[in-house]
Amino acid sequence: MSDKAPFERGTDGPKVIVAGLDGSEPSWRAVAYAAGLARRQNALLAIVYVQPVLAAGAAFGAPVAEATAEIADQLKAEIEKAAARFQAVSSLRWEFHTFVGDPFSGLSQASNELTADAVVVGASEKAGHRIVGSVAVRLVKAGRWPVTVVP
Predict the structure, then answer these.
(1) How far is CA 107 from CA 21, 72, 119, in A?
(2) 3-state DSSP call for residue 129?
(3) Which of 14, 68, 97, 117 is a plausible cystine mate for 51, CB 3.0–4.6 Å?
(4) What single DSSP character describes residue 24?
(5) What are the residue boundaries of the UspA domain, all occurrences included (predicted)?
């Protein structure tokens, strides 16, 4: 018998909550909501920014990787600033991660690698997602984690 028990999602409440952040207002609300959940459950909040692969820009020689890395750095700086304001009154544990790819694949990869118990994302602001399906809908359909969509 192994000393290490197999991983079970959500059996004793969440230990890791993944929140997707892309800089939009709904994604910031999702991070705030996830932070409250993580604080109350004493869980780790893993904030994930997925750097988009902009194939068209890269094909024309645009410095795509540098641009998306700058966005990640800016988001992390904003999170650190907000966390510093609340550090005295909160024991929230959090980490910032970046992944490269499309948002669904990046959040799925992050959630798998971090053994997430829950995923929190903001509602999509794009009209086309009603036809194709939003990242949130795709995460729900994947059926691997409880998904909360914050408007």
Answers:
(1) 10, 15, 8
(2) helix
(3) 68
(4) S
(5) 15-151
Q: 3-state class of 100 per DSSP?
A: strand
Tokens found for residue 100 = 């490269």
The alpha carbon of residue 83 and the mean position of all alpha carbons in its chain are separated, in whole angstroms, by 16
How sure is the predictor about 132, in pLDDT bands with cuts at 50, 70 and 90?
A: very low
Q: Assign 66 a pLDDT band (cuts: 50, 70, 90).
A: low
Angle in degrees, 0-180, between the axes of helices 135-142 and 103-113, rounded to the nearest 10: 40
pTM across the whole model: 0.75
- d(CA 47, CA 107) in angstroms, rounded, equals 10
- Cβ contacts of residue 70 below 8 Å, gap of 6+? none
Amino acid letter, residue 89 = V
